[in-house]
Amino acid sequence: MGIPFSREHARPRCQCSTEPSVRISKYVEGEAEKLANPLKQVQSQDMEGQERQRVRRLEATRRMRALSQCPSPPVSTPGLPIAEPTRSFWTYPPSAILARLVQDPDGNQCAAVPEYADVVVIGSGISGASFVRTLLNADRRRVNKGEHEHKRLSVVMLEAYDACSGATGRNGGHINPPLYHDYEELKNTLGLRAAQHIIRFRLAHLEIQQRVGETDAPDADCRTVEAVDVYYDEETFEEAKRLLKVYKRDMPVEGQQYECVVGEAARKRYHLSEYALGCIATRAGAVHPYRFVAGVLTRLLEDHPKQ
């Protein structure tokens, strides 16, 4: 696995269309189809739910088609990365992974770029690192089982600056996905089963990330913490309690992790302002994202040196 980090490889992620009327139409049709397909696959348990989904599909399609009247596509180029970006606090001290790389003539960290690769990944943040880890580990398992008739996959990862120098390197590391906050809307839009599947997928991040942290990035401080949503507005707090009640009713096992604390009890337990009306607390996680990704990439280089 090679990980080149050179500015010369940075490219705009997209280009503005020179034929907006044609391309926006194709773009809108494609996006409308993507939005409609998942809804078509979800079957509600009752006729009322099916009718609600049909109406939402029609509304979503109508909105997407309306975009075709826009004078230009809703995309634009972000431009090339700047020459000397501000470095995030979280990236100090630099990861030891940079010691594996060499410097190009301009003094930038850069590994040798191979002439050929099966897979090229743009970006070395948590998304890129997670994808490559899953890909290479699965590829190795298939080889060990004798399912591969050909050689192992080769992967190249490109980054404009240093490893994990983008959004992940600037992240504070909170692992606290929205659950009860989004559940009712997901249920009304996609149906009960799809909503529960999405919620459980979000919940799985906490356990999986901690497990990977223990094996691949022990210095990333992966840990379990308590997350607290504090409310100062009565109307907002009442709505949050209602959403939580719906969530607990439909997902009683997952709902056990939540606790609603009201009034003086909340202010005393969490040392809150006198203006706090209450809070909703649950189990969450925390991690040092830069160290986490650097640890994963380092482990990949050790486990798959030729890939």
Automatic annotation (TrEMBL):
InterPro entries for this protein: FAD-dep_OxRdtase (IPR006076), FAD/NAD-bd_sf (IPR036188)
Highest taxon of the lineage: Eukaryota
Residue stretches making up the FAD dependent oxidoreductase domain: 118-300
GO CC annotation terms, alphabetical: cytoplasm
The protein's name: FAD dependent oxidoreductase domain-containing protein
Organism: Pisolithus microcarpus 441
